Amino acid sequence: MQSPERLKGIGAFVATAEAGSFAAAAERLHLTGSAVGKAIARLEARLGTRLFERTTRRLELTDAGTAFLRVCTRVLSDLEEAEHVLAHESDEPTGRLRIDLPVTFGRLQVMPRMLPLLHRHPGLQAVISFTDRFVDIVDEGIDVGIRIGGPDLWPAALAHTYLGHERKVFCASPSYLGAHGTPHSLDALAPHAAIVYAKPDGTASPWLIRHGDGPLERHAPEARLVLASAEAQVDAAASGFGITQLPTWLIGDHLADGRLIAILPQHDTEGLPMHVVWPRARQWLPKVSAVVDYLGNALEGTIAP
């Protein structure tokens, strides 16, 4: 069992970091400025590091203080949530919920399914971010996230539910295929205009190609358009600019109504895996378990129809 001493001074430290001075923190905590200053001095002595740089005019967090504040804020938030759950003795999901989603998949597939859940549970205060950068779920205080791609070995601090793999297909508009012909082999694909996705550094992402049961190959076509948006790829392909490779969850409606036509079905390929991810330390919270279970069921069948 951890010593209760570990919690001493944390409240004073967080209040001072947020308020910017001992006096302001003391007013918030109904203590004297001297008491707050001594509490933080004892905390720094116990930790063996300075948390604040002190000048005659202001306090500033050190690098160690900034890192410690992030952890302390998360700990206090979890404690507050635990007290809230015990006070209400209910499995009803309530409280602030931070969700992080991939930009395009989150907007097109997750949000239309999340909104009914939020209607059913008005006590949930969802704070939803959309980003395609790597997000450290634990370090950034995320309650639930969706990951496209993932490690073979997950960190012990993270729990995850597998949703499925993307299915990627080659496709183009009827107008493009009518003007340039429909390729029926990879060799015939080579001279066609290619629309590809741009990585964060601006370089083109390769096409993924599978030959039967063989290993997955990466092919870098000569691209006519390199776009840093999957939705822009869809628009360009539907407008007749060339051939692209996209996941079926993104272009299902376009395939269904004929705006895009799938080609080279023998080279449909498995794309990246998708997971619902959450911190193991928070999975006992009703708001987290409810959203994890709901998303796992709601997204079934959307990944690779």
Question: Can you tell me about this structure?
Answer:
The protein has 305 residues and is α/β, with parallel strands linked by helices. It has 10 helices and 13 strands. The strands form 3 sheets. Strands 3, 4, 5, 6, 7, 10, 11, 12 and 13 form a 9-stranded mixed β-sheet that branches. Strands 1-2 form a two-stranded antiparallel ribbon. Helix 5 links the parallel strand 3 (95-101) and strand 4 (124-130). Helix 5 crosses helix 10 (286-298). The longest helix is centred in the N-terminal third of the chain and has 26 residues, at 63-88. The protein is elongated and about 80 Å long. The protein starts with 9 loop residues before the first helix and ends in a 7-residue tail after the last helix. The model has no long low-confidence stretch (mean pLDDT 87).
